[in-house]
């Protein structure tokens, strides 16, 4: 390295030496100023960075608080938590002391683990400060000594020059002083020049070393950040795609809400005020709620507007939303409700209990009638629930049977809050959409028995109800027989039929989000039925449709069919009746009776020996789809029924060899409630009759199938239709002394007459009627042993 000041020039003490010294001294003074400024700026930067980290931590805590607040939204909560953790890690890279990070992995170098602020402190502040305080201080000390000895040398030279020649003693003294001074000057000057050259060399290395260390600290910091966000990259990419879908869904929801807003805004609420004032929410236990005026019991009899509700068998009201409800009536079973026309105010009614009465006023006559009806219904429901509780206590005290255990198991499931969604998704294949495979489907096609995602459900709706009837698994109310139907089929069963040739044809199922591909695939699958195996129906046993019944058996069947229902039951052995009854009443439909594949509409009423002779035998590989549906309906084989419908079977196909009996009549004879529901959901005519004029309701009444009678009445069966003997279902039930069926038929007839008299065409009718039929449906599906009373009593006698 080139020396800043030459040592030879130092010994000469030439003007070049003095000029070089002056230049170096000025440069060092300026260097000191620059370094002092840089150290101060570094200290300020570190302090500002620490304040930034404190503010950043507070910001991270704010993100975490927002994530906890969004706990009901899994996407937002997960994303905010993950982002705040990553940003917190970046803050740690700023501030965690070096020795803590160094303990994590000893394989990395010092610079890799020195965090930014800590390394900045070491490289800039500490290192440069040390250079200024140590090396520059030594330079200043050497400079002072040099200036002092230089002055002494000048003085010695001046004194030596002024001494007179004749004064030998002074001459000698001045010469000695000059010699000593020069020697000292040379020694100190050489040290000073050495200090200058060393300082100039060291300042380069110290400055570059500190800056290089500082830059390495930045490199380590940003490298750590790059690694951290590289790991976060795939998640951010997935979230971005999900966010795009959310934006599309949000825009769609906005359009739907705007459309609904516009539709509601255009409605005329003047004639529909009752719908705005109350709603029915059985899930929350609230029968009815809305504003009413209440007359105070004080001397002034003031009227105050309060929010009333009927819930938990009580009438309560609130002044404000946050107030605790005030109970007006503790137990509605002890109350009565009546109109009040003897006061000046309009639309008043009174709720009377044994201890007090409450005068209330509605806003309109329509609302008054609604409240009165709601109170009356609640009173009836409270009595019925009390009776059910007593019945449960009686059951606990009596020995249980197998069928009772199954009923209790079903009740336990209901008590545990098992929803329709949970029950249906437990069926194999139902945990993902039947058509696109998207997980956790919330919609279903009830006539197909499959689960669907929301996008596929919209496509199914566009096909029309004759192809697919869509219902929500979470928003809609599910009748027990319909829920059991969903549990009997499922995505795996239906896809084995409707996607039998998908792999052979090389067709791939659409993926979630492919709307156009889904529409084409679903239409080809269910409307055109392109993927159905046309020859799968040949897997049925090789039989040929052929009647071999003997003439004597035919005559006996005709003679028995002319008997009344009670005589028909007595004409068959009790063992046969018992077998039929047990099969009829199985709610789960998993029991299979060892009876012939197809049975005529009258064969169940025949003696067992003759019934075998009247069977239909099939010999051909190519079975008629309608006949397959006919057979499977009796056998309670829902997968075979779905296969027959997929092959184009007419759901109302009539067997000309079997008195023109339909698959729905065969389902009645087979004793399966779910099979009947499946046929009805797929368009079976509930009023189609055989050659004897008997429809499904007639046959269910003759056989004493109470659950099926209830189902057919709910589905619009004509109970006034008569058979060839002029008997309607009610007369048959009365003759057979079946109290449950008589009750259902009479109640349905009364409800029908009441609706006709009040002009309520198309309305469900009285709530008491609906409640009773709902109870019978629940018993038929979950507790069929309760409906076994008639058959058991018949066997006793």
Written description of the protein model:
The protein is α+β, with helices and mostly antiparallel strands. The chain folds into four domains: 7-140 and 204-257, Substrate Binding Domain Of Dnak, Chain:A, Domain 2 (Up-down Bundle), CATH 1.20.1270.60; 283-389, PH-domain like (Roll); 409-533, Arf GTPase activating protein (Annexin V, domain 1, Orthogonal Bundle); 555-614 and 626-796, Serine Threonine Protein Phosphatase 5, Tetratricopeptide repeat (Alpha Horseshoe), CATH 1.25.40.20. Helix content is 60%, strand content 7%. It is built from 29 helices and twelve strands. The strands form three sheets. It has a seven-stranded antiparallel β-sheet, with helices on one face. It has a three-stranded antiparallel β-sheet with strand order 9-8-10. A hairpin with a 2-residue loop joins strand 2 and strand 3. It is elongated, with a radius of gyration of 49 Å. Mean pLDDT is 75; it is low at 97-114, 274-281, 393-417, 538-621 and 790-797. GTPase-activating protein for the ADP ribosylation factor family. Keywords: ANK repeat, Cell membrane, Coiled coil, Endosome, GTPase activation, Membrane, Metal-binding, Repeat, Zinc, Zinc-finger. Residues 136-166, 236-267 form a coiled coil. Residues 398-407, 569-588 have a biased composition (Polar residues). Residues 390-411, 559-599 are annotated as: Disordered.
């Amino acid at each position: 390295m080139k020396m800043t000041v030459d040592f030879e020039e130092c010994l000469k003490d030439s003007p070049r030496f003095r000029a070089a010294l002056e230049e170096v001294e000025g440069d060092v003074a300026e260097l000191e100023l620059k370094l002092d400024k840089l150290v101060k700026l570094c200290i300020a930067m570190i302090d500002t960075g620490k304040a930034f980290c404190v503010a950043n931590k507070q910001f991270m805590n704010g993100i975490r608080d927002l994530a906890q607040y969004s706990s009901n939204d899994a996407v937002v909560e997960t994303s905010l938590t993950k982002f705040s953790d990553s940003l917190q890690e970046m803050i740690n890279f700023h501030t965690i002391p070096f020795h803590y990070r160094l303990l994590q992995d000893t394989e990395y170098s010092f610079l890799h683990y020195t965090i930014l602020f800590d390394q900045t402190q070491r490289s800039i502040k500490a290192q440069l400060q040390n250079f200024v305080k140590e090396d520059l201080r030594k330079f200043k000390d050497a400079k002072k000594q040099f200036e002092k000895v230089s002055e002494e040398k000048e003085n010695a030279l001046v004194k030596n020059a002024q001494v007179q020649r004749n004064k030998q003693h002074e001459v000698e003294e001045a010469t000695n002083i000059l010699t000593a001074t020069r020697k000292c000057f040379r020694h100190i000057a050489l040290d000073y020049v050495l200090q200058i050259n060393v300082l100039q060399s060291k300042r380069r290395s110290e400055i570059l070393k500190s800056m290089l260390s500082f830059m390495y600290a930045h490199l380590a910091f940003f490298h750590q950040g790059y690694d951290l966000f590289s790991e976060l990259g795939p998640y951010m990419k997935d979230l971005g795609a999900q966010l795009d879908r959310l934006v599309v869904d949000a825009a769609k929801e906005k359009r739907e809400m705007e459309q609904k807003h516009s539709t509601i805004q255009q409605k005329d609420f003047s004639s529909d005020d009752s719908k705005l004032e109350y709603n029915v929410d059985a899930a929350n236990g609230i029968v009815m709620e809305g504003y009413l005026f209440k007359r105070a019991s004080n001397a002034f009899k003031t009227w105050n507007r309060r929010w009333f509700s009927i819930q938990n068998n009580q009438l309560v009201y609130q002044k404000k939303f946050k107030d605790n409800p005030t109970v007006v009536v503790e137990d509605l079973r002890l109350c009565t409700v009546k109109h009040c026309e003897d006061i000046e105010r309009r639309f008043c009614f009174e709720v009377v209990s044994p201890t007090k009465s409450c005068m209330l006023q509605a806003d309109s006559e329509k609302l008054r009638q609604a409240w009165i009806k709601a109170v009356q219904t609640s009173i009836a429901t409270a009595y019925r629930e009390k009776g059910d509780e007593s019945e449960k206590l009686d059951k606990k005290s009596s020995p249980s049977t197998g069928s009772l255990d199954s009923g209790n198991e079903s009740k336990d499931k209901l008590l545990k809050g098992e929803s329709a969604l949970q029950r249906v998704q437990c069926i194999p294949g139902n945990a993902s959409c039947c058509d696109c495979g998207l997980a956790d489907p919330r919609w279903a096609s009830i006539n197909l028995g499959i689960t669907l995602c929301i996008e596929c459900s919209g496509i199914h709706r566009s096909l029309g109800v004759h192809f697919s009837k869509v219902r929500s698994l979470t928003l809609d109310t599910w009748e027990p027989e319909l829920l059991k139907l969903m549990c009997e089929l499922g995505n795996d069963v239906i896809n084995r039929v409707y996607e039998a040739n998908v792999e052979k044809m090389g067709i791939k199922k659409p993926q979630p989000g492919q709307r156009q591909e889904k529409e084409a695939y679903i239409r080809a699958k269910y409307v055109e039925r392109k993927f159905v195996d046309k020859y799968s129906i040949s897997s049925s046993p090789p039989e040929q449709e052929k009647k071999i019944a003997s003439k004597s058996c035919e005559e006996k069947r005709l003679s028995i069919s002319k008997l009344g229902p009670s005589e028909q039951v007595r004409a068959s052995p009790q063992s046969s009746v018992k077998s039929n009854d047990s099969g009829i009443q199985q709610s789960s439909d998993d029991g299979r009776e060892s009876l012939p594949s197809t049975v005529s509409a009258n064969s169940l009423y025949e003696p067992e020996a003759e019934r075998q002779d009247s069977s239909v035998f099939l010999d051909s590989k190519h079975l008629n789809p309608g006949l397959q549906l006919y057979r499977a309906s009796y056998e309670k084989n829902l997968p075979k029924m779905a296969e027959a419908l997929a092959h184009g079977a007419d759901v109302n196909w009539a067997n000309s060899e079997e008195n023109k009996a339909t698959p729905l009549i065969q389902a009645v004879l087979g004793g399966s409630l779910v099979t009947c529901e499946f046929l009805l959901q797929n368009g079976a005519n509930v009023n189609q009759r055989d050659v004897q004029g008997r429809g499904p309701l007639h046959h269910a009444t003759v056989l004493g199938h109470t659950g099926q009678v209830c189902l057919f009445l709910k589905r619009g069966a004509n109970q006034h239709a008569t058979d060839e003997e002029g008997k309607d279902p009610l007369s048959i039930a009365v003759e057979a002394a079946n109290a449950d069926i008589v009750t259902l038929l009479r109640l349905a007839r009364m409800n029908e007459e009441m609706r006709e008299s009040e002009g309520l065409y198309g309305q469900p009718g009285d709530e008491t009627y609906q409640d009773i039929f709902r109870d019978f449906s629940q018993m038929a599906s979950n507790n069929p042993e309760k409906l076994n009373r008639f058959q058991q009593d018949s066997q006793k006698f």
